[in-house]
Amino acid sequence: MLLIGAIIIFAYASKIRRSVRAKKKSCGIPKGMILYSDLNVPAAPLFSSRSRLTGKPDYIVRKDDHFLPVEVKTGGGQHPHHSQVLQLAVYCQLLEETTGAFVPEGILVYNNVPYTIPFDPKLRFELESVIKRMRSCLRSGVVQRNHQEQKRCTHCSMRQYCNDVVPDGP
Ligand code: SF4
Fold it and tell me: How far is the CA of 150 from the centre of ligand 1 (A)?
C-alpha cells in the first residue's frame, strides 16, 4: 500500500515538474531554479532602504551562482523598449542590495523571446543618473513631459493625475 502511494506521489511530482518546465520554455523563461514568482500569486516586493527603491520582478531565477531577475513583457515592436531595460535594471539593483550578492545580468522576456541584459557599468550609471533626475524633479515639484506621443497619454495609468497630457487632436 505504502509503495503504491509512493509511486503515485512520484508520478504526480514528475508530471508537475514536466508541466513547469514546459511552461517555462513556452514563456521564454531561461533555465534555472525559480526562487520567486509574482505571476501566479502576488509576491512581497523587494525593498532597499539604501537606494529607496522598491519593486517586484515577475521571477527571480538562480543560474549558476547568481540570482537573476526576470521580467516578462508583451508589446509591439521587435525589441524590448529602453524603459523596460531600465525597469529591469532597478530589479537588478534591488536584488543586489537585498541579497548582498553581485547580479551580473537580468532577463527580459519580450514576446516570449528572452533577452539577456547585462547589468554593466554603463547601465548602472544610467540608472543612477535617471534616479537622481527623478528625485530632483520630485523635490522641485516640476515634472516635465519628455515626449509628444498622444497614444502614450491615452493609455497611461497616470492620466487622471497628470496635468501635462498631450492633447487629443488630428
Ligand atoms: S498622461 Fe502624463 S504621465 Fe502619462 S504619459 Fe502622458 S504626460 Fe506622461
Answer: 9
